[in-house]
């Protein structure tokens, strides 16, 4: 079979796959020497590859980034245990070999060179096409989009809007509620409601235009509203270069990686946090070379809660504080 373009090949193969009930992904392409012209492409069933392919890919990335063996990386070909924990969700991957390869012939047309129609290790059926988001989204027309956003602006929950649209349009195979929620998020994420938020972001953009060393970043919630914002001026970044040996982090930030990126990916020698368990693993992953210690203030503030009911608390609280603050070695602390 011959087609005019690789897009035509892709469209044809996806139409075939939708009828059979499986998804398609373009896994590779070959280009001319100047990288300007696509010369060949391979499409496969979305279930190609081993079930732990994503986990292995992430493990390799983490091992390379951390330059640390055994903590979430690949050691002697084995995946670290914590990566496998993250990969427990069911995977579509089953090493299916269904594929199609096409390339440009002498006439400049796209000819199918190789194809395999057998589905290995799974037996999709036409009704399975609804499990593929790309096929579901075919029903996301401009009319559906307009109705969805109108409902959302009126305060109607997406789940309820989904039912209303299905009733009004008579469509049985609309995108799922989760699909529509994602579309609302995409529409709203850059429309941060409220003059203060918009003015702040405009001010940050202006600051960054005047000084490239000014850094700012923000996150949005699932409904596209401003969730948190981080900014660092030039003076702070320069100060960190000279005095960034020890950094104190309050657990409420929960933005370790975002903060590290604005500081040129330079890890501090030591970092102090409260005793929140949620901070330990992210710090080990994002700042593996920094020494993590608990903040003394957070520890001391717990003393009244833990020991205040003791009979002689009033007598020993001052000597206890003196012991803690004036002991500079483990041996001295134990002895006193």
Could you give a short description of this structure?
The protein is α+β, with helices and mostly antiparallel strands and 336 residues long. The chain has 15 helices and twelve strands.
Q: What is the spatial order of strands in the main beta sheet? A: 1-7-6-3-2
The fraction of residues assigned to DSSP E strands is 15-25%
The residue-averaged pLDDT reads 79
Largest sheet: 5 strands, antiparallel
Domain module tally: 4
Number of helices: 15
* Element-by-element helix/strand order: EHEEHEEHEEHHHHHEEHEHEHEHHHH
The portion of residues assigned to helices is 40-55%
The span between the termini is 86 Å
- Report the strand count: 12
Low-confidence stretches: 66-87
The secondary-structure class comes to alpha+beta
Q: Using the alpha-carbon principal axes, give the shape.
A: elongated
Cα radius of gyration in angstroms? 28 Å
């Amino acid at each position: 079979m011959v087609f005019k373009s690789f897009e035509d090949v892709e469209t044809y193969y996806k139409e075939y796959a939708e009828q059979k009930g499986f998804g398609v992904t373009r896994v590779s392409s070959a280009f001319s020497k100047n990288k300007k012209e696509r010369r060949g492409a391979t499409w496969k069933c979305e279930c190609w590859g081993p079930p732990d392919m994503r986990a292995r890919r992430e493990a390799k990335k983490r091992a390379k980034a951390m330059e640390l063996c055994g903590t979430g990386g690949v050691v002697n070909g084995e995946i670290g245990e914590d990566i496998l924990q993250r990969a427990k969700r069911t995977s579509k991957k089953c090493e299916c070999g269904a594929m199609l390869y096409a390339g440009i012939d002498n006439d400049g047309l796209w000819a199918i060179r190789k194809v395999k129609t057998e589905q290995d290790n799974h037996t999709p059926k036409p009704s399975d096409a609804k499990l593929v988001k790309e096929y579901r989204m075919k029903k996301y027309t401009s009319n559906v989009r307009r109705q969805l956003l109108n409902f959302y602006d009126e305060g109607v929950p997406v789940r309820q809007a989904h039912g209303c649209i299905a009733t009004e349009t008579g469509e049985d195979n609309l995108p799922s509620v989760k699909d529509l929620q994602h579309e609302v998020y995409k529409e709203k994420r850059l429309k941060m409601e409220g003059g203060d938020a918009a003015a702040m972001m405009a001010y940050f953009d202006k600051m960054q235009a005047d000084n490239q060393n000014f850094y700012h970043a923000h996150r949005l919630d699932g409904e596209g509203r401003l969730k948190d914002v981080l900014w660092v001026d030039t003076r702070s970044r320069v100060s960190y270069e000279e005095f960034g040996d020890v950094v104190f982090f309050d657990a409420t930030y929960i933005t370790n990686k975002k903060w590290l990126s604005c500081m040129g990916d330079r890890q501090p020698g030591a970092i102090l946090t409260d005793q929140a368990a949620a901070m330990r693993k992210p710090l080990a992953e994002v700042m593996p070379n920094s020494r993590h210690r608990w903040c003394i203030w957070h520890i001391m503030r717990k003393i009244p809660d833990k020991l205040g009911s003791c009979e002689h608390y009033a007598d020993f609280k001052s000597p206890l504080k003196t012991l803690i603050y004036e002991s500079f070695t483990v041996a001295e602390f134990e002895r006193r």
